[in-house]
Amino acid sequence: MFIRLEHLDIGYGGRHRHIVATDLNFVAEGGQLTCLLGRNGTGKSTLLRTLAGLQRPLGGRIVLEKEEGDEFQVSSFERQSHSFESDGRLCSVVLTDRIDDLSLSVEEVVAMGRMPYTGFWGRLTDQDRLIVSEAMATTGIDTMARKPWNTLSDGERQKVLIAKALAQQTPLMLLDEPTAFLDHPSKIETFALLKRLAHEQGKIIILSTHDLELARQWGDHFWEMSLSASHAT
Predict the structure, then answer these.
(1) Closest CA to 40 of 20, 19, 18
(2) CA–CA distance from 40 to each of 80, 121, 209 (Å)?
(3) 215 pLDDT exceeds 80?
(4) Which of 182, 67, 47, 115 is nearest to 193 (CA)?
(5) 32 CB contacts (<8 Å, ≥6 apart)?
(6) Is the dihedral of CA 194, 197, 199, 205 positive or negative?
(7) 38, 117, 119, 123: which could form a disulfide with 225 (CB 3.0–4.6 Å)?
């Protein structure tokens, strides 16, 4: 399982077209924690939003292989044949946007990850509830299932959002600066959790980060973006 970028150009189209990065070629594989590195302004967040289908690429294409030999084009400049945004069963996203006014419980927030499967009315089946429970247990938040979201620490909130993405059961998980608001112990815990999820569940997990030391310590694969070029290590 992998996602492959082929001569991808990213940025903003329309009347005020602006290219952030060009000719990106990269492969991220399942079972590995891939760290996207680079200074502010190099396009890390724009790339993640493009991979998630939240922005259309300005050139090139994105290809996903879910199973060996089952390869299809997800998105291209010429034609957006299939969008991660329109199919929540392919890609789950954890952005840096902070949610401060959510009065739901931890369990209810995690259950939101089942929305691509629950249909129009959003009713959870016994199987959905089991998946939510397993996601909370995997991320170590099962003991706070009834706790209100607005009482959580930043570290706890990040775990809840990862559990929500996990409950979505997607082959690809994208995280934009998941340790941005965390203290050092929580940062280590988050990196360790994501690496374990990638290895144990075979997911393609890509995160952007400024924590270079922790990325080098916990990451399996690295992609460094710059204002002029990008390369993988």
Answers:
(1) 20
(2) 28, 41, 10
(3) yes
(4) 182
(5) 198, 199, 204, 205, 220, 221
(6) negative
(7) 38
Tokens of residue 96, six digits: 């840096």
User: Which letter does DSSP use for residue 114 in this model?
Assistant: G
Inter-CA distances, 147 with 20, 21, 23, 40, 151, Å: 41, 42, 46, 35, 7
Report pLDDT digits (tens) over 43-64.
999 999 999 888 889 999 999 8
CA–CA separation, 55 and 12 (whole Å) = 8
Distance, CA of 117 to chain centre? 18
Under 8 Å between Cβ of 2 and 65 = yes
pTM across the whole model:
0.89
